[in-house]
Amino acid sequence: MENADSFKDGKTAEEKAIDDWLPVTSARNAKWYYSAFHNVTAMVGAGVLSLPYALSELGWGPGVVVLVLSWIITLYTLWQMVEMHEFLPGKRLDRYHELGQAAFGEKLGLWIVVPQQLIVEVGTCIVYMVTGGKSLQKFQQSVCPTCKPIKTSYFILIFGSVHFVLCLLPNFNSIAGVSLAAAVMSLSYSSIAWIASLLKGIHQDVDYSYRDKTTGGNVLNFFSALGDVAFAFAGHNVVLEIQATIPSTPQIPSKKPMWKGVVVAYIVVALCYFPVALVGYYIFGNSVDDNILITLEKPNWLIAMANLFVVIHVIGGYQIFSMPVFDMVETFFVKQLKFKPCTQLRMVVRFTYVGLTLFIAIALPFFGGLLGFFGGFALAPTSYYLPCIIWLIVVKPRRFSRSWWINWICIVLGVLLMILAPIGGLKTIIASSRNYKFFA
């Protein structure tokens, strides 16, 4: 399948050898359904369980509007990225920063895209370390409520140790099985969350009024909830890297199978997000916790199973978000520093990365609360409006045409999200800071 990809032509033997070794470009034989479950794994994080809480801070009307708009806008910007993957004749833009360089220039493109992409990917990996550890802890507590409590940091350590093995899988295609399991798990625990809520029945004295007693508090909660919703649509940071694994010929360009997979993925995203958010808020109102599984409490076996599904899902999610980081670092070593592509280099790079994210997760088990603040700066641009800016630069739609207006509306909404979400995130950090414990 490798030589079926006509876009490899024109490269030297050394460049081809490096491409054949690097994680993103080493295998070009992925099927359309790889795109589907990779995108589901990247998009549907454990953050789906906090959507009822976000809805309780947004209110019924604005909450539904924000969810629907986010789904539509991010599907549109994802379509743009899929279309732009091969917009340069004879060249594939296999990485997000390569698309940025095509639009903004070699140096500026790197500075605009790479820091934002790294904040999202590294931040998500740390959050997944924490989430995986805490979900393991909840699983243990559900299965054995009388057992002696074990520190969260030990569970994070157990969860993190899995990645010292899985990180050695060389590329996206090699983690396809892990990613498929993760995608199935995300649909499973999302279904458990909303079906168990429905079976529990509407909460007695359910209250749909805003959580805070003051207008200022409710406004800040509203901004914070925007950040939670933005975090739920973070899959754009790995989409070009996923598309790079699909073969492309002039007859069947990679955008066709890729888009087919994306559409399936977004249907699954809708099946996960909307029922959990709407049913969870409808049943519990503003008494819902920031993780709906905590609100459900019983039956024990079902909550234990849901938490185990979360663990399996974030194992796959960690791998999907790590792969572009591995690719960036390994590319730097072999292309800039002229290291020889070898297994030893790969082991050093990947073990170091897993070790660092594991250490930060153990040291800052409250990192998820911080990501709402930092993530707002990077999540909104990379998912909501950076593809629109690049589209305006490279595709150049006619001024005041429908495409031009749609892109500018997305840019304005995305910039507002980037400004407002961190304000709410800062309020959450300040309010929760007294409960923060290092190495908990």
Brief summary:
With about 450 residues, the protein is an all-alpha fold. It has helices spanning about 15-20, 30-45, 50-60, 60-85, 95-105, 105-145, 150-165, 175-200, 215-230, 240-245, 255-285, 290-295, 300-335, 345-365, 365-395, 400-430.
* Number of beta strands: 0
* Terminal CA distance: 49 Å
What would the principal axes of the Cα set say about the shape? globular
- What ranges have pLDDT less than 50 throughout 5 or more consecutive residues? none
Radius of gyration: 21 Å
Protein described:
The protein has 440 residues and is mostly helical. It has helices spanning 13-21, 32-43, 51-58, 60-84, 96-104, 106-143, 152-166, 176-200, 215-231, 239-243, 255-284, 292-296, 300-336, 343-363, 367-394, 402-432. Helix 4 packs across helix 15 and helix 8 packs antiparallel against helix 13. The longest helix is centred in the N-terminal third of the chain and has 38 residues, at 106-143.
